[in-house]
Protein backbone atom coordinates (compact mmCIF):
# COMPACT_ATOMS: atom_id res chain seq x y z
CA UNK A 1 0.00 0.00 0.00
CA UNK A 2 1.46 3.36 -1.03
CA UNK A 3 1.63 6.09 1.63
CA UNK A 4 -0.93 8.69 0.57
CA UNK A 5 1.05 11.43 2.33
CA UNK A 6 3.95 11.05 -0.10
CA UNK A 7 3.82 13.45 -3.06
CA UNK A 8 3.53 12.18 -6.58
CA UNK A 9 6.62 12.28 -8.77
CA UNK A 10 10.09 10.77 -8.88
CA UNK A 11 11.72 9.37 -5.76
CA UNK A 12 14.97 10.73 -4.35
CA UNK A 13 17.88 8.27 -4.67
CA UNK A 14 20.49 7.70 -1.99
CA UNK A 15 23.37 5.27 -1.58
CA UNK A 16 24.32 3.57 1.70
CA UNK A 17 27.20 1.31 2.66
CA UNK A 18 27.37 -1.43 5.28
CA UNK A 19 31.15 -1.47 5.74
CA UNK A 20 32.17 -4.58 7.68
CA UNK A 21 35.46 -5.48 9.32
CA UNK A 22 36.66 -8.08 11.81
CA UNK A 23 38.08 -5.90 14.57
CA UNK A 24 39.92 -6.88 17.74
CA UNK A 25 37.97 -6.76 20.97
CA UNK A 26 40.92 -5.11 22.76
CA UNK A 27 44.32 -3.63 21.86
CA UNK A 28 45.92 -6.88 23.04
CA UNK A 29 43.80 -9.16 20.86
CA UNK A 30 45.84 -11.00 18.27
CA UNK A 31 45.49 -10.63 14.50
CA UNK A 32 42.48 -12.47 13.16
CA UNK A 33 40.74 -12.56 16.55
CA UNK A 34 37.82 -10.32 17.28
CA UNK A 35 34.25 -9.68 16.22
CA UNK A 36 32.52 -8.60 13.03
CA UNK A 37 31.76 -4.88 13.22
CA UNK A 38 30.02 -2.29 11.06
CA UNK A 39 30.83 1.37 10.54
CA UNK A 40 28.11 3.79 11.69
CA UNK A 41 27.86 7.54 12.14
CA UNK A 42 25.47 9.68 14.17
CA UNK A 43 22.89 11.66 12.23
CA UNK A 44 23.01 15.38 12.90
CA UNK A 45 19.70 16.24 11.21
CA UNK A 46 16.08 15.20 11.53
CA UNK A 47 14.46 12.82 10.98
CA UNK A 48 16.11 10.47 13.49
CA UNK A 49 18.74 13.01 14.59
CA UNK A 50 21.17 11.45 17.05
CA UNK A 51 20.63 7.90 15.89
CA UNK A 52 23.41 5.81 14.41
CA UNK A 53 23.16 5.34 10.66
CA UNK A 54 25.02 3.89 7.72
CA UNK A 55 27.35 6.24 5.86
CA UNK A 56 26.16 7.50 2.50
CA UNK A 57 24.00 10.19 1.00
CA UNK A 58 22.22 11.43 -2.07
CA UNK A 59 23.25 10.12 -5.47
CA UNK A 60 25.02 12.80 -7.50
CA UNK A 61 23.55 13.74 -10.90
CA UNK A 62 26.65 12.66 -12.85
CA UNK A 63 27.77 9.50 -11.04
CA UNK A 64 26.73 5.87 -10.88
CA UNK A 65 25.84 4.28 -7.56
CA UNK A 66 29.18 2.55 -6.89
CA UNK A 67 31.21 5.66 -7.74
CA UNK A 68 28.91 7.64 -5.44
CA UNK A 69 29.30 5.37 -2.42
CA UNK A 70 33.08 5.16 -2.82
CA UNK A 71 33.26 8.96 -3.01
CA UNK A 72 31.06 9.46 0.02
CA UNK A 73 32.93 6.93 2.13
CA UNK A 74 36.19 8.69 1.31
CA UNK A 75 34.86 12.21 1.86
CA UNK A 76 32.61 11.72 4.87
CA UNK A 77 34.23 8.99 6.98
CA UNK A 78 37.70 8.77 5.35
CA UNK A 79 37.37 5.09 4.43
CA UNK A 80 39.38 4.44 1.26
CA UNK A 81 41.00 1.04 1.77
CA UNK A 82 38.08 -1.16 0.75
CA UNK A 83 39.13 -4.58 -0.50
CA UNK A 84 35.67 -5.44 -1.82
CA UNK A 85 32.49 -3.52 -2.72
CA UNK A 86 29.31 -5.02 -4.13
CA UNK A 87 25.73 -3.92 -4.50
CA UNK A 88 23.59 -5.50 -1.82
CA UNK A 89 19.97 -4.58 -2.53
CA UNK A 90 17.57 -1.74 -3.25
CA UNK A 91 15.38 -0.64 -0.33
CA UNK A 92 12.30 1.13 -1.64
CA UNK A 93 9.48 0.85 0.87
CA UNK A 94 7.49 4.10 0.46
CA UNK A 95 7.58 4.95 4.17
CA UNK A 96 11.19 3.90 4.91
CA UNK A 97 12.21 7.54 5.53
CA UNK A 98 9.68 9.86 7.23
CA UNK A 99 9.01 13.14 5.46
CA UNK A 100 7.58 14.61 2.30
CA UNK A 101 10.02 12.94 -0.09
CA UNK A 102 10.13 9.29 -0.97
CA UNK A 103 13.73 8.06 -0.62
CA UNK A 104 14.95 4.92 -2.40
CA UNK A 105 18.27 3.52 -1.17
CA UNK A 106 20.79 1.43 -3.07
CA UNK A 107 22.78 -0.37 -0.38
CA UNK A 108 26.28 -1.78 -0.73
CA UNK A 109 28.40 -4.26 1.18
CA UNK A 110 31.95 -3.04 1.72
CA UNK A 111 34.80 -4.97 3.36
CA UNK A 112 37.94 -3.67 5.06
CA UNK A 113 40.86 -6.02 5.94
CA UNK A 114 41.52 -6.62 9.63
CA UNK A 115 44.95 -4.95 9.62
CA UNK A 116 43.60 -1.55 8.48
CA UNK A 117 42.43 0.98 11.07
CA UNK A 118 40.93 4.03 9.33
CA UNK A 119 41.12 7.35 11.16
CA UNK A 120 37.47 8.18 11.74
CA UNK A 121 35.66 11.47 12.41
CA UNK A 122 34.40 12.09 15.95
CA UNK A 123 30.80 11.22 15.00
CA UNK A 124 31.73 7.84 13.49
CA UNK A 125 32.48 4.53 15.21
CA UNK A 126 32.60 0.77 14.75
CA UNK A 127 29.83 -1.32 16.34
CA UNK A 128 29.48 -5.11 16.71
CA UNK A 129 27.01 -6.38 14.12
CA UNK A 130 25.37 -8.65 16.68
CA UNK A 131 24.92 -5.83 19.24
CA UNK A 132 23.80 -2.82 17.22
CA UNK A 133 22.76 0.46 18.87
CA UNK A 134 19.48 2.22 18.07
CA UNK A 135 19.75 2.83 14.32
CA UNK A 136 17.97 5.17 11.92
CA UNK A 137 15.26 4.11 9.47
CA UNK A 138 15.78 0.56 8.10
CA UNK A 139 19.55 0.59 8.57
CA UNK A 140 19.57 -2.34 11.00
CA UNK A 141 17.91 -4.51 8.36
CA UNK A 142 20.52 -3.41 5.81
CA UNK A 143 23.37 -4.30 8.19
CA UNK A 144 21.93 -7.76 8.82
CA UNK A 145 21.42 -8.29 5.09
CA UNK A 146 25.10 -7.41 4.57
CA UNK A 147 26.18 -9.80 7.32
CA UNK A 148 24.15 -12.62 5.78
CA UNK A 149 25.55 -11.90 2.31
CA UNK A 150 29.10 -12.07 3.65
CA UNK A 151 28.44 -15.32 5.50
CA UNK A 152 26.93 -16.92 2.42
CA UNK A 153 29.76 -15.88 0.13
CA UNK A 154 32.44 -17.12 2.50
CA UNK A 155 31.09 -20.61 1.78
CA UNK A 156 31.19 -20.63 -2.00
CA UNK A 157 33.68 -17.91 -2.99
CA UNK A 158 37.18 -16.77 -2.04
CA UNK A 159 35.82 -13.61 -0.34
CA UNK A 160 37.90 -14.29 2.75
CA UNK A 161 40.71 -12.43 0.97
CA UNK A 162 38.85 -9.16 1.64
CA UNK A 163 38.90 -9.69 5.41
CA UNK A 164 42.50 -10.83 5.69
CA UNK A 165 45.86 -9.05 5.52
CA UNK A 166 48.21 -9.82 2.64
CA UNK A 167 49.89 -12.61 4.67
CA UNK A 168 48.50 -14.61 7.57
CA UNK A 169 48.79 -17.79 9.55
CA UNK A 170 46.08 -20.42 9.29
CA UNK A 171 45.22 -19.77 12.93
CA UNK A 172 44.66 -16.07 12.23
CA UNK A 173 42.56 -16.88 9.16
CA UNK A 174 40.47 -19.27 11.23
CA UNK A 175 39.81 -16.40 13.64
CA UNK A 176 38.59 -14.18 10.81
CA UNK A 177 36.25 -16.81 9.40
CA UNK A 178 34.94 -17.64 12.88
CA UNK A 179 34.19 -13.99 13.62
CA UNK A 180 32.45 -13.44 10.30
CA UNK A 181 30.45 -16.68 10.35
CA UNK A 182 29.46 -16.40 14.00
CA UNK A 183 30.79 -19.79 15.14
CA UNK A 184 34.16 -21.45 15.65
CA UNK A 185 35.73 -22.88 12.50
CA UNK A 186 38.24 -25.73 12.49
CA UNK A 187 41.63 -24.47 11.30
CA UNK A 188 42.44 -27.87 9.80
CA UNK A 189 39.18 -28.09 7.89
CA UNK A 190 39.43 -24.48 6.70
CA UNK A 191 42.92 -25.02 5.34
CA UNK A 192 41.88 -28.27 3.66
CA UNK A 193 38.84 -26.69 1.95
CA UNK A 194 40.61 -23.54 0.77
CA UNK A 195 43.70 -25.44 -0.39
CA UNK A 196 41.59 -27.95 -2.31
CA UNK A 197 39.97 -25.02 -4.13
CA UNK A 198 43.40 -23.60 -4.98
CA UNK A 199 42.82 -20.43 -2.97
CA UNK A 200 45.76 -20.57 -0.57
CA UNK A 201 49.47 -20.56 -1.30
CA UNK A 202 52.40 -20.62 1.16
CA UNK A 203 54.67 -17.59 1.18
CA UNK A 204 57.71 -19.57 2.31
CA UNK A 205 58.02 -17.34 5.38
CA UNK A 206 57.00 -17.85 8.98
CA UNK A 207 55.40 -15.63 11.57
CA UNK A 208 57.51 -14.35 14.49
CA UNK A 209 57.35 -16.60 17.52
CA UNK A 210 55.45 -15.39 20.56
CA UNK A 211 56.84 -14.84 24.05
CA UNK A 212 56.27 -18.51 24.91
CA UNK A 213 58.38 -19.66 21.96
CA UNK A 214 57.43 -22.80 20.07
CA UNK A 215 57.55 -23.70 16.42
CA UNK A 216 56.98 -20.66 14.16
CA UNK A 217 53.76 -20.83 12.12
CA UNK A 218 53.88 -20.78 8.34
CA UNK A 219 52.52 -17.74 6.53
CA UNK A 220 50.02 -18.04 3.69
CA UNK A 221 48.31 -15.68 1.26
CA UNK A 222 45.27 -15.88 -0.97
CA UNK A 223 46.12 -16.76 -4.55
CA UNK A 224 43.69 -14.12 -5.88
CA UNK A 225 42.52 -10.73 -4.68
CA UNK A 226 39.33 -10.56 -6.74
CA UNK A 227 36.13 -12.42 -5.97
CA UNK A 228 35.77 -15.83 -7.58
CA UNK A 229 32.97 -18.37 -7.25
CA UNK A 230 34.82 -21.55 -6.32
CA UNK A 231 32.10 -24.01 -5.32
CA UNK A 232 28.51 -22.84 -5.90
CA UNK A 233 27.06 -25.68 -3.81
CA UNK A 234 29.39 -25.47 -0.81
CA UNK A 235 28.39 -24.15 2.56
CA UNK A 236 30.20 -23.80 5.87
CA UNK A 237 28.03 -25.09 8.68
CA UNK A 238 28.35 -24.63 12.43
CA UNK A 239 29.53 -27.73 14.29
CA UNK A 240 26.90 -30.00 15.74
CA UNK A 241 26.16 -29.49 19.40
- Average pLDDT confidence is 90
The number of helical runs is: 4
Coarse shape: elongated
CATH fold-type name of the largest domain = Nucleoside Triphosphate Pyrophosphohydrolase
Number of domains: 2
Q: How are the elements arranged and paired?
A:
Layout: E1 12-23, E2 35-42, E3 52-53, E4 56-58, H1 65-76, E5 84-91, E6 103-111, E7 124-128, H2 139-156, H3 170-181, H4 187-196, E8 200-206, E9 218-222
Parallel strand pairs: 1-6
Antiparallel strand pairs: 1-2, 1-4, 2-3, 2-7, 5-6, 8-9
What would your notes on this structure say?
It is built from four helices and nine strands, in the order ββββαβββαααββ. It is α+β, with helices and mostly antiparallel strands and 241 residues long. The chain folds into two domains: 12-155, Nucleoside Triphosphate Pyrophosphohydrolase (Alpha-Beta Complex), CATH 3.90.79.10; 157-222, Winged helix-like DNA-binding domain superfamily/Winged helix DNA-binding domain (Arc Repressor Mutant, subunit A, Orthogonal Bundle). The strands form two sheets. Strands 1, 2, 3, 4, 5, 6 and 7 form a seven-stranded mixed β-sheet that branches. A two-stranded antiparallel ribbon has the order 8-9. The longest helix has 18 residues, at 139-156. The radius of gyration is 20 Å and the shape is elongated. 31% of the residues are buried. The mean pLDDT is 90.
Amino acid sequence: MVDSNKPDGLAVSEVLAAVLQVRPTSPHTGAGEGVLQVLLWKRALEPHAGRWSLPGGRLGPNEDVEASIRRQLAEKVDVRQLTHVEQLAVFSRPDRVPGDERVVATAFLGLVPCNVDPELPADTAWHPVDALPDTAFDHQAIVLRARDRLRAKLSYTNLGFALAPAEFTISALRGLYSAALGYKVSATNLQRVLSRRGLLEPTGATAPTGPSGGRPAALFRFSRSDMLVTDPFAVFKPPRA
